[in-house]
Amino acid sequence: MQEIKEYLEQHKQRFIDELIDLLKIPSVSADSAFSQDVLDTADAVKTALETAGCDAVEICETAGYPIVYAEKIIDPNLPTVLVYGHYDVQPPDPTDLWNSPPFEPVIKPTELHPEGAIFARGASDDKGQMYMHIKAVEFMIKTGQLPCNVKFMIEGEEEVGSKNLATYVSEHHEKLANDIILISDTGMIANDVPSITTGLRGLSYVEVEVTGPNRDLHSGLYGGAVANPINILAKMIASLHDENNHITIPGFYDRVEELSEEERAEMAKAPFDLEAYKNSLGIEAVYGEKGYSTNERNSIRPTLDVNGIWGGYTGEGAKTVIASKAYAKISMRLVPHQDWQEITELFKTHFERIAPQGVRVKVTPHHGGQGYVTPIDTIGYQAASKAYETTFGKKPVPQRGGGSIPIVALFEQELKSKTILMGFGLDSNAIHSPNEHFAVWNYLKGIETIPYFYQYFSEMYS
Amino acid sequence: MQEIKEYLEQHKQRFIDELIDLLKIPSVSADSAFSQDVLDTADAVKTALETAGCDAVEICETAGYPIVYAEKIIDPNLPTVLVYGHYDVQPPDPTDLWNSPPFEPVIKPTELHPEGAIFARGASDDKGQMYMHIKAVEFMIKTGQLPCNVKFMIEGEEEVGSKNLATYVSEHHEKLANDIILISDTGMIANDVPSITTGLRGLSYVEVEVTGPNRDLHSGLYGGAVANPINILAKMIASLHDENNHITIPGFYDRVEELSEEERAEMAKAPFDLEAYKNSLGIEAVYGEKGYSTNERNSIRPTLDVNGIWGGYTGEGAKTVIASKAYAKISMRLVPHQDWQEITELFKTHFERIAPQGVRVKVTPHHGGQGYVTPIDTIGYQAASKAYETTFGKKPVPQRGGGSIPIVALFEQELKSKTILMGFGLDSNAIHSPNEHFAVWNYLKGIETIPYFYQYFSEMYS
Predict the structure, then answer these.
(1) What is the percentage of chain B residues whose pLDDT exceeds 90?
(2) Where are the domains of chain B?
(3) Domain B203-256+302-369 bears CATH identifier 3.30.70.360
(4) What is the per-residue DSSP string for B325-375?
(5) ipTM tops the 0.85 cut
(6) In chain B, positions 385-414, which contact chain A (CB-CB < 8 Å)?
(7) Domain A202-256+302-369 belongs to what topology?
(8) Is A30 in contact with B318 (Cβ distance < 8 A)?
(9) Is A31 on the interface with B (CB under 8 A)?
(10) Residues B27-53: pLDDT tens digits?
């Protein structure tokens, strides 16, 4: 498959331009103000799949944003790869921290990527990584080298919990039937340390509301005499971790998989520079659960983070008010075997229980998903490993990731197939943050590597 | 002074209309978007003082919003009353909880005020109460019954800490020379339980900023491994009270005046219905410092309340982010002898000290002021008491208030005179809250009562 390099050389400017066009559409699924843009993005993805040479391309309506489906069936006797990705993106807030507008993509060199990176919301998560697959398939179809069947399922609600994908998947077992699922929505350790994500954390995301008095009050007249919902919310949140940063929700750790000393020792071999990590984040010290390393804390251990908090007067100047209500968005990252629905229930029960008299508490589950672990002795993993080795010149490291793609566990349950997470992003890509970017080198390296996965997987499968 | 009742009957519609016009101008001093409106309000107050018959009316420029000064000197040998009030108002947020727009005043009956109350931001605090004085003086001037000299000093920065009034006062000792200061910016226990506020709490208002990583992070990739500024802020706020709701800042209580058992027993005689209090606030239980009653908690005890908190994603839906920064506005109500600048310093030192490694903390003092206690054996208090007794038919109860008018302590220090707090509002007026209002009855009762204060004070003084 030598000509992939030539094909890339010939078409790379077009590949970049096409991605930039896609990044210009603000497909923010969490904010209904952008709903038309999300729909326009689905149309753009449909067109891109048609142009790449796919058949049966369709916009599949759901109760929310549509799923774009496409396929290229060359022989029912050959194996089938199902590619999953998402065309929606995270909200760009806080927009004032972006160095260029989030939906006006620009290519700029960075210290890590002197050859340039594309800066835009969704550049890495997941428009850029999803689009690599469309371009890789374009190459295989146009050059007559597609060695197996391929199906695409690109959704528009990943950033809001894949609300309607589960229904779609459960209703289309036959249409989506496959031998392996391929996703690029994760990262690698570094460009010279390729890695494959073998585990993902689950997620439970809830919103809490604490109500005290039935109206905002003057803090002079009522201060000290009634429960202040913000003080109470702070106290309740603080109590969710103990002095060792263990989570205090009863039953939270009951199903947590404890790794053996051998497994932890194996994990500890992955290259990690704590000083560089702290420097890149501008922090003097890391912080987390006692008894675990930084890499363990953000991969094999469950966590609880407040993702947003608000209440009272937050404008300019001062207002001496006791707010009637205070709110927080709280997410818990879960590890394999923790059930997200059970954890959501445990959280709700506990949070309601610890509310003092004088306030009322409402817990609203937003969404969630199970964690996932993929074994490395499957042909899916082996094919991916060999593909990276071919194009990076190095065997990739298996790595447990801290993020969540809740749908992966569901795929296995519904479609009975394993997922391979071939990520080409880096932690430094600032996904979910201002100045998200994706290096041009990584984008093109992804397009180059993916066809080898198809080749090796088809060879090993037969 | 029988004709005050007649004068009121004759002019009450005009008095109401004039106040409504004043309430239409959104003089929100905390928000620079309203700066022209604040200036327009100063002009309106100037015109009102001129119309009432005052002399030497002027707009006195300061580094911030101007002070409106006026006087009526009838005889240098007679005593002089200095009236203080403010024409700026609190921000109206949250505006969606108002039943009518905050700057479109309407008169509506309420359960407590079947004869109607004026609903608007500033109706009670302090435009309505300040305007009573202008109308009372109008009556005394127009009917030739002003028994002493009067000076007005109406400022536009009370709701943002009277930033520039201190300078003005210190530079105009002679101009502002007086024998008693009169302020209506507090409340009474009830319309059938008139009371005079004899103490006010001091205030220290600060803003805190907690910074963790140098950018917003993806909670999947970093969750559990770095200090989350919102979780940390919650923990730090929670730690500011112990399990008995005592404030934990070292030295905070050192200067707190402890009342004797006799004084507390005397205070406890004031009529107070805990069930009605809880019902009016929609709460099942009161909450506060162990060992003190509700009335003690919000008058003779210092407090610490979070007035606003914000950080991370607060929009629609979910975003799995670890914010770089979290913020809170925190105010402490202080009791006499606590020095607000010392308390601010104690807070700052403590808050910085308790920040864990991995975050940086910035504490910005907003403003503050000293508490105040006025003795009841002065002719000022006695004149006010007799005035209420004349128009309410009942001797008023001396009452310690929970709010703060920081400038009162400064007046005593700079001008060497005592302040009498003749408030005609009620706690239920929802000042600083949505649906602030001031009953028409109370507004007119204030105008009726004030001239008697001038009469009795002048008589007792000679």
Answers:
(1) 82
(2) 3-200+371-461, 203-256+302-369
(3) yes
(4) EEEEEEEEEE-TT--HHHHHHHHHHHHHHHPPTT-EEEEEEEEEE--EE--
(5) no
(6) 401-404
(7) Alpha-Beta Plaits (3.30.70)
(8) yes
(9) yes
(10) 999 999 999 999 999 999 999 999 999
